[in-house]
Amino acid sequence: MMISTRGRYALRVLLDLAEHKDEGYIPMKEVAKRQELSLKYIERIMPVLSKNKLVEGVHGKGGGYRLSRPAEEYTVGEILRLTEGNLAPVSCLECDAKECKRAGSCKTLPMWKKFHDITNDYFDSITLAEFF
User: Fold this and answer.
1) How far apart are alpha carbons 17 and 31 in whole angstroms?
2) Does the pLDDT of residue 95 top 80, yes or no?
3) How many domains does the chain have?
4) Which DSSP symbol is given to 97?
């Protein structure tokens, strides 16, 4: 399993918003500059975060984004599953995967399930607040 740029950037953007929460709505150009990220790439991520109510946005002068809830209520797992689709290490464990005809006799499936559970449990145990 490899976390894509999309997942890593979303995490960095949300951490930046958490760090600057007292400044109100933050323009993405400021986040892009501080995080050394492409503004165009951030602008492609923000609608997903907004649609799923991780951030609130205001357009126009004085606009930008802010977290929609306290940093303690965001887990890294939630953010990565939203941006990555899921954290399955093998295709047969993906959310809408068809059951593999070998599932009943697959000797490695229990190992992959345990790895998947460990990964999700680990990322679900870390909140944005823990980075500060």
Assistant:
1) 8
2) no
3) 1
4) P
